[in-house]
Amino acid sequence: MSPNQIEKLTGWVNDLCTLTMGGKDVSPDTIQTYVRALMAEFPPQAFTQECLQHVYRQCNTLPPYAKLRQFIREHFENGPAMRAALSQYDAALIEWAKNDYSGPRPAIPEIAKPSRMIAHG
Q: How far is the C-alpha of 100 from the C-alpha of 23, rounded, in Å?
């Protein structure tokens, strides 16, 4: 992730803390621990306002990391960014087939590549 993306993710986690903790202080170390863990598992496109809403609407407090990961994964894998990327990919595959499969096969969108997320649980 670029420094700008890390800053955006840090803001996303801070917003989550504000919305779920009702203004209670969360240590900067806790926030950075969440940021580092989330960076390792999800691409920057996962951290949208819609995803933030999906998470905080299900929480009364800052969730443990495993639960947060589950909420983000649910939204990311079924959310609008993934649907849009897969829809574009499907359209490219149809066009490729209409052209008798000439030329290279359309590439899987970066957002949809399984290697972008750790596949466990």
A: 59
pTM over the 0.90 mark: no
SS3 readout for 89-100:
HHHHHHHHHHCC
- Residue partners of 80: CB distance under 8 A and separation at least 6: 50
Per-residue model confidence (pLDDT) at position 7: 95
In the prediction, which pLDDT does 114 show?
56
* 52 neighbors 59 (Cβ within 8 angstroms): no
- Parts of the chain with a pLDDT under 50: 115-121
Pick the closest to residue 38 from 62, 73, 3 (CA basis). 73
3-state secondary structure the chain: CCHHHHHHHHHHHHHHHHHHHCCCCCCHHHHHHHHHHHHHHCCHHHCCHHHHHHHHCCCCCCCCHHHHHHHHHHHHHHCHHHHHHHHHHHHHHHHHHHCCCCCCCCCCCHHHCHHHCCCCC
Which tokens go with 24?
């209670």
